[in-house]
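Q: I have 141 residues here and want to know how they pack in 3D. Can you give me a structure?
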Amino acid sequence: MKKILILSMNNACRSQMAEGWFSYYGKGEVETFSAGFKPTFLDLHAAQSMMDAVIDITKYRSKSLNDVIDNRFDYVICLDNNIKDILPEFKNSPTILFYNFEDISSKDIDDEDKRKVYDDLRDELENLAFDFIHANIKALY
């Protein structure tokens, strides 16, 4: 079983959504974790958007990198370029990949646009998870 860590700054929105997708597409083949450098609380807009896609992340909690650092990961997926310079060394020398997804949880978004912004992020993260699992873990057809 491969272990994947998904990192963002706060572990409130992007990494939680990505954890849901990676767990879904990697079921039976991967163990997925998410964490942040400054964990806060699960973004309820992110949870609602994921629920609309039938992925329930409402029981997820924001975790600090310190909560998971002792694991031996095969992959570390960073969703924020701002964490590049503060990454610690990981046991087992995992493959570290960087993607830059905007931190929408800290943006001031009109209520009318909020749903679309979260849904767009959800869909982009789904594409990342599907493509990654398909290319690196198991064929998804």
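Q: Anything worth noting?
A: The first strand starts at residue 2 and ends at 8. Residues 134 and 140 are 5 Å apart (CA to CA).
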